[in-house]
Amino acid sequence: MTPAKKLLFIFLLFFAALFVSLPNKFSLFGREFTRPNLDFKAGKFELKKNFDLIYGLDLAGGSHLVFEAESSQIAEEKRKTAIEGVRDVIERRVNLFGISEPNVQASSFEGKDRIIVELPGIKDTKEAAKLIGKTAQLVFAEIQGEGENAKLMLADLTGADLKSAKEIFDNTTGKPAVSLEFTQEGGKKFATLTERNVGKQLPIILDSQPLTSPVVQETITQGTAQITGNFTTDEAKKLAIQLNAGALPVPISLVEERTVGATLGAESVSRSIKAGLVGLLMVLVFMVAAYGRLGLVADLGLIIFGVLTLALYKLIPVVLTLPGIAGFLLSVGMAVDSNILIFERFKEERGKRPLADALEVSFGRAWDSIRDANIATLVTTFILANPFDWSFLHTSGPVRGFAITLALGIGISLFTGIVVSRNLLRVFVRENPKFN
Fold first, then answer.
1. Do residue 270 and residue 409 come from a single domain?
2. For residue 255, which of 104, 186, 323, 421 sits 20 to 30 Å off, Cα-Cα?
3. Highest mean pLDDT out of 3-7, 309-313, 357-361
């Protein structure tokens, strides 16, 4: 693909991102415009997207709830699994309740196990707190009848009869599976239930929502069973956690509730936008002052960077918090780093060889420094984001928000610095050999 065609693709991408980045309503040349939302339907496939920015609790306001789990009666080796199960169930309940982008975290401190729930945009939390505060209810069911006459009947086998569930690997296939172990009384109920449902599905329901519907292969009398299927390791682990949430029902009680106002958030957003615009303007002026027309190319790349970043925030979507905005502002300054390295190398090379060759050599020799610097920063953002929830690292939501926005900024800055600026310069240098 020629540089001109690449440049055309870049500008098409820019205008598509600009469409996503525009607010729902805006004014232009004295006229009011409304940006249409994406509403696409083809057969059973349906896509609806409103491209709104999603704000976190500190910017949108909302509620902060803290629940304490009564886990003192649970054996120490099972406590962590039980709390993970409770956290997973609470998160599922909140999502089903329709709350946008909740933040649910488990916390253990001084022998107390707590679940912290943040609900952006929710001011009246009574109904949500009531929903969250229920103890997980796990129950087995059987299907009676066939076709349209089939009915789901709840059995007397519940989570109280399930001793434990854990992720294993099937001895025959080697694939991930879930092993179930019942209590003595639960084993008897399970034997009776499987005896009359051989060859049929046996739905397992948690909080009125089906988790899985394994097919009974034979009567099971040993008090243990195995759920097999095309599970991934993560899916098997998640199912085991959900089953344990019902097998080890942990009562929780609301110990803290506070409403976070959005006034401070609105002021923070306004000031952050002003700070970002001032910082962006200063960077634009500096690049032109230091590098002349080369700086104009870098400025155009920086504008494209900003539009692409905002569009990505809306498409993913990224829950924008105040630390997240700080991460974006930091990435603005870093977005021109690659241009500075390339331009400084270009100053050295253009006197030694033809201008077009000097440009290519400058990009090639600056790449090692650009790569190493950005990899170092990406490693830092990985540690701050802590995607695997390692206990020895920070798990704060705001810190993760900062890390995620900074990492996205670095990725997009690499694209604009290497791909956008490079192709802009290739076109300008080819059309104007005296370009400097």
1. yes
2. 323
3. 309-313
